[in-house]
């Protein structure tokens, strides 16, 4: 029996259904668990998909039941809903990743939904897509480790600020900082080390926290109690933009370039930063394929939610705007046209015109242009100076040229 956990509100259920479908369709029915773990005595194989949510309507519950019935014909599975309340997390601060609701914190109490008979579970973010037989992960022996984790590709200069005994303190993260989008949890050790309680205690003392649950887990699970998984199991697609590995610069992705390249050639679970339901096109993988096409291909195979998703796909256009703005910024930076950059940041008169520029952007820089475009929109929203946009763009362009995967293999 395999227990998998997701966090999803009413609006995210349809996206979670795609992930669940990808897990089922990538399970090789010709194999048994013993093919992955020869010492296993598992006989009755079945997936239990646990969804943590703040609210799910009767209509959506019915859809999930129908999804379960459809997928159960392919491989035994059951979908179980667990309703939590934001009030249960009143001691947890509102932060960047939990700026509007406390749903990201729900995973911290995932162990409370299982009895003592369940020894291991796998948590997955809903913006993921399974490309492998997920039983590979369940066959991993965590021994005395609390969790199997994958390193985060961002900078490790983050920190948590908290008060203890009326004194301000700072907890700094290091190169071992992991991404909480995938957690292979050893439930016995998770409970033994009181991780839920430690997270809540620290959260109640925080006055600055950026990545919500992710920061709390990194602060409470000691490095020596983590099992480092291959990057392929939580392949964050932002690394297709550019990746800085640990043998190239400190405090970056905690994998060597060689280790990253192995994951790049055979990613097992994709983690979408630029959501496919917002970006029909972003980055292109090692094989030259649009990474978002994989998700939409699975969406077209997802029972019950298929028509709803494909109808939504028809109206997705904002990414064209992001890419077009970024393309204009790229040309302006290359020509050192500061007046044009000022115009892009301060004026919105030609925004509709810029959307038409998307068709001129080559595939290999499309996602790159999307990122540049987002920097402009961020500057507009937060009333940033155009000089800041210029220097940020210079940094992005430099890193893209030096660390984009095509230039490193």
What are the salient characteristics of this protein?
globular, seven-stranded mixed sheet, single chain, 14 helices, Spore Coat Polysaccharide Biosynthesis Protein SpsA, Chain A, 409 residues, alpha/beta, three-stranded mixed sheet, 2 domains
Rg estimate, integer Å:
22 Å
Strand and helix order: EHEHEEEHEEEEHHEHEEHEHHHHHHH
**CATH architectural group of the largest domain:** Alpha-Beta Complex
Sheet with the most strands: spatial strand order: 3-2-1-4-9-6-11
Quaternary organisation of the protein chains? single chain
Decide which structural class fits the backbone.
alpha/beta
Shape annotation: globular
Helical residues, percent: 25-40%
CATH homologous superfamily identity of the largest domain: Spore Coat Polysaccharide Biosynthesis Protein SpsA, Chain A
The total strand number stands at: 13
Mean pLDDT across all residues, rounded?
A: 92
Total domain modules: 2
Distance between the termini: 40 Å
Low-confidence stretches: none
CATH topology of the largest domain: Spore Coat Polysaccharide Biosynthesis Protein SpsA, Chain A
How many helices? 14
Largest sheet: 7 strands, mixed
Please report the first level of CATH classification, the CATH class of the largest domain: Alpha Beta
Report the sheet-strand fraction: 15-25%
Task: Describe the overall structure.
The protein is of the alpha/beta class and 409 residues long. The chain folds into 2 domains: 2-313, Spore Coat Polysaccharide Biosynthesis Protein SpsA, Chain A; 318-407, no CATH class. Helices cover 36% and strands 16% of the residues. It has 14 helices and 13 strands. It has helices spanning 13-25, 58-72, 135-138, 187-192, 195-205, 213-220, 257-265, 291-299, 306-313, 318-334, 338-346, 351-355, 366-381, 386-403, and strands spanning 2-7, 47-53, 77-83, 120-124, 128-130, 147-151, 159-164, 167-172, 178-186, 206-208, 226-228, 235-236, 269-271. The strands form 3 sheets. The chain has a 7-stranded mixed beta sheet. It has a 3-stranded mixed beta sheet with strand order 5-13-12. Strand 1, helix 1 and strand 2 (47-53) form a beta-alpha-beta unit. Helix 1 (13-25) runs parallel beside helix 2 and helix 13 runs antiparallel to helix 14 (386-403).
């Amino acid at each position: 029996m395999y227990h998998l956990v997701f966090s999803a509100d009413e609006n995210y259920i349809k996206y979670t259904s795609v992930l669940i479908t990808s897990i089922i369709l990538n399970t090789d029915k010709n194999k048994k668990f013993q093919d992955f773990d020869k010492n296993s005595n598992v006989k009755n194989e079945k997936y239990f998909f646990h969804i943590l949510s703040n609210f799910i309507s009767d209509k959506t519950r019915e859809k999930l039941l129908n999804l379960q019935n459809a997928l159960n014909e392919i491989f035994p599975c059951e979908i179980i809903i667990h309703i939590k309340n934001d009030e249960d997390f009143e001691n947890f601060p509102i932060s960047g990743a939990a700026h509007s609701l406390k749903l990201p914190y729900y995973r911290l109490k995932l162990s409370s939904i299982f009895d003592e008979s369940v020894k291991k579970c796998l948590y997955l973010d809903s913006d993921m897509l399974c490309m492998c037989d997920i039983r590979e992960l369940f066959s991993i022996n965590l021994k005395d480790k609390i969790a199997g984790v994958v390193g985060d590709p961002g900078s490790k200069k983050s920190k948590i600020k908290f008060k203890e005994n009326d004194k301000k303190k700072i907890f700094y993260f290091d190169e071992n900082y992991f991404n909480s989008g995938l957690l292979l949890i050893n439930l016995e050790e998770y409970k033994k080390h009181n991780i839920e309680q430690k997270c809540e205690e620290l959260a109640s003392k925080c006055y600055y926290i950026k990545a919500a649950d992710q920061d709390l887990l990194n602060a409470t699970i000691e490095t020596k109690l983590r099992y480092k998984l291959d990057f392929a199991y939580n392949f964050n697609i932002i690394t297709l933009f550019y990746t800085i590995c640990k043998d190239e610069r400190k405090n970056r992705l905690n994998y060597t370039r060689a280790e990253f390249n192995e994951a790049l050639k055979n990613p097992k679970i994709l983690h979408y930063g630029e959501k496919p339901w917002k970006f029909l096109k972003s980055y292109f993988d090692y094989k030259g394929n649009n990474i978002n096409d994989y998700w939409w291909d699975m969406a077209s195979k997802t029972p019950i939610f298929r028509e709803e998703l494909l109808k939504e796909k028809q109206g997705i256009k904002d990414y064209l705007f992001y890419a077009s703005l970024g393309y204009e910024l790229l040309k302006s930076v290359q020509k050192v046209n500061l007046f044009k950059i000022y115009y892009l940041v301060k004026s919105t008169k030609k925004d509709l015109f810029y959307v038409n520029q998307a068709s001129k952007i080559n595939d290999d820089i499309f996602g790159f242009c999307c990122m540049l475009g987002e920097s402009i929109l961020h500057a507009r929203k937060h009333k940033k100076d155009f000089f800041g946009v210029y220097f940020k763009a210079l940094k992005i362009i430099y890193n893209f040229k030096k660390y984009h995967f095509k230039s490193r293999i």
